[in-house]
Amino acid sequence: MAKQDPDLSLLFQALSDPTRRAMLERLARGPAAVTELAAPTGLRLPTVMRHLAVLEGAGLIVTTKDGRVRSCALVPQALAPVEDWLAGQRAEWEARLDRLEDYVMRLMKERER
């Protein structure tokens, strides 16, 4: 994986905001109208639309319009690159900790001699 993955950066940027994460949590229960997503935020509709544009730009949601109602739906598979990156980071740090533990244990054994 490239160190500077623009798609991954877009995903983390989208996930960095608590309002957007709350919207994703709501959408995990099923599609919702924009007005439903806006209600708990207390934000004005243009601000909510900017948050939704960021989520849509990152590929985390899709929106559809039926008459005057715009609805949003989560795209769960869009989180796969984030999960993969985090799993890679976890594996790397676990390997480092294992090597550190081995080193410390070797030092302790040498001191016992």
From TrEMBL:
Residues in HTH arsR-type domain copies: 1-94
Xref: InterPro entries: ArsR-like_HTH, HTH_ArsR_DNA-bd_dom, WH-like_DNA-bd_sf, WH_DNA-bd_sf
Pfam family, one: HTH_20
Stored PANTHER family: SLL0088 PROTEIN, TRANSCRIPTIONAL REGULATORY PROTEIN
Protein name: Metalloregulator ArsR/SmtB family transcription factor
